[in-house]
Amino acid sequence: MWGNDKDRDEVPARSPKATNTVDTLIGRQTVITGDVAFTGGLHVDGRVKGKVMAESDKNAVLSVSESGAIEGDVRVPHIVLNGSIEGDVHADQRITLSAKAKVTGNVYYRLIEMTSGAMVNGQMVHEGATEDKVAPLPDRGSEDASDTEEHSRAAGTLFDAAREKKTSL
């Protein structure tokens, strides 16, 4: 109705093979100290003090509720976060940061969805299937260098004049 099916297929909301089930639940009153390795779906309402990793499962999904927290690095292909993570996050496929999500650490992702209110205190690093290649700028030569200096002086003069008159550029 709002768009054709072709547009929706270009960027799927979730990988068609990602699991929709929760195989493991960590309840609100539960605190796990140590690393957690899982396959399938893991939902965290409680607290994990250690790394959380999907064991060679490209379809694994980690969901962390608003009351859930992880203190350690996370390495899972599909992540839906509405709680907090203190550590680096590696989402090989997709990460969704909901309104209450808070990450203190770097986020490495292929596809990201971030809702207003989500916070990331760290770097966000895109890791695509292929590395982006940037072509170097062509050498402009010495003739263009004098033109650039002249333009810089003219811009500086305009800026100084505007500041003296207290007008905006």
> What structural class is derived from the secondary structure elements?
alpha/beta
SSE topology string: HEEEEEEEEEEEEEEEEH
The span between the termini is: 46 Å
Which of globular, elongated, flat, extended, rod-shaped describes the shape?
A: globular
Q: Mind summarizing the main beta sheet?
A: 10 strands, parallel
Low-confidence stretches: 5-16
Number of helices: 2
Rg measurement, Å = 24 Å
Give the beta-strand count: 16
Proportion of residues in helical segments = 10-25%
Q: How many domains in all?
A: 2
Residue-averaged pLDDT, rounded?
Answer: 80
How big a fraction of the residues is strand? 35-45%
Topology:
Blueprint: H1 5-10, E1 24-26, E2 31-33, E3 36-38, E4 41-44, E5 47-49, E6 52-54, E7 61-64, E8 69-71, E9 74-75, E10 78-81, E11 84-86, E12 89-97, E13 102-104, E14 107-114, E15 119-121, E16 124-126, H2 141-165
Parallel strand pairs: 1-4, 2-5, 3-6, 4-7, 5-8, 6-9, 7-10, 8-11, 9-12, 10-12, 11-13, 12-14, 13-15, 14-16
Region (Disordered): 130-169
Protein name: Polymer-forming cytoskeletal protein
InterPro entries: BacA/B (IPR007607)
Description:
With 169 residues, the chain is α/β, with parallel strands linked by helices. It folds into 2 domains: 5-126; 135-169. Helices cover 18% and strands 36% of the residues. It contains 2 helices and 16 strands. It has helices at residues 5-10, 141-165; strands at 24-26, 31-33, 36-38, 41-44, 47-49, 52-54, 61-64, 69-71, 74-75, 78-81, 84-86, 89-97, 102-104, 107-114, 119-121, 124-126. The strands form 2 sheets. Strands 1, 3, 4, 6, 7, 9, 10, 12, 14 and 16 form a 10-stranded parallel beta sheet that branches. Strands 2-5-8-11-13-15 form a 6-stranded parallel beta sheet, with no helix packed on it. The radius of gyration is 24 Å and the shape is globular.
